[in-house]
């Protein structure tokens, strides 16, 4: 069914796509053909988000493991890939290749500076003493109201990996948000986002990090919630999209399916 839907999207969209977009969509089509093979991964699809035992004897060697980002990019749903590529094509038509590249560079630099400021604050700097470049001032203004609800910092910009499921990632923050221990992911945005289902793969990324972090936390201190924080380039107050225990568990299951699809794709090459 999934592959049939993908073929239908291709039929209607491909004539309007250039060579690079067609190649990307065909890659998605190839990936989706592995959906029927996901069940072959067995117990990994039922792997728990949290750990209840007090020991972990699995070797902690994260060399040559795929990253969460890489896995999500490789298994991106075809609709998301098409939307992203269509937006890119629209912006290139508007700004030109050079103008689009410059816009992307400035956006990345502003976001990186904002992330650095957040890191400074979480590491103990006084918020009013933190200076950001002019290009990041609106982002910084956007996120500051959220930061007052973040405390009891456990990890900032830390590397984590899952010794059983074999992946790694870099966590923005593990801390208490509004009284609950959470994985927090900071995401800059040029549009207002008010629902998790408008966040593409951001919630899956948070769930993946939570599962990996929990492997290294004691059973009585497990992460059961997550937060995707959308920080706005326009300067309006950031949106904290909280994933409660039920919601985080749901996205963890979605992450396991994407991980299984990625592993199946790797096995077929």
Structural class comes to alpha+beta
- Measured by DSSP, the beta-strand proportion falls in 15-25%
Which architecture name does CATH use?
Alpha-Beta Complex
Task: For the record, give the distance between the C-alpha atoms at the N and C termini, rounded to a whole number.
Answer: 23 Å
Number of domains as seen in the coordinates: 1
- Quickly count the helices: 7
The CATH first-level class comes to Alpha Beta
Percent range of helical residues: 40-55%
User: Which H/E pattern describes the elements?
Assistant: HHHHHEEEHEEH
Query: How would you describe the shape?
Result: globular
The number of strands is 5
Spans with pLDDT under 50 lasting ≥5 residues? Answer: 1-38
CATH topology: Lambda Exonuclease, Chain A
Average predicted confidence as pLDDT:
84
What order do the strands of the largest sheet run in, or round the barrel if closed? Answer: 1-2-3-4-5
Largest sheet: 5 strands, mixed
Radius of gyration: 20 Å
Protein name: Mitochondrial genome maintenance exonuclease 1
Family: Belongs to the MGME1 family.
EC number: 3.1.-.-
Organism: Clavelina lepadiformis (Light-bulb sea squirt)
Describe the structure.
The structure is a single chain. With 269 residues, the protein is of the alpha+beta class. It has a single domain, classed as Lambda Exonuclease, Chain A (Alpha-Beta Complex), CATH 3.90.320. The protein contains seven helices and five strands. It has a five-stranded mixed sheet, with helices on both faces. A hairpin with a 6-residue loop joins strand 4 and strand 5. The two termini are 23 Å apart. The N terminus is likely disordered. Keywords: Exonuclease, Hydrolase, Mitochondrion, Nuclease. Its EC number is 3.1.-.-. Belongs to the MGME1 family. InterPro entries: PDDEXK-like_dom_sf.
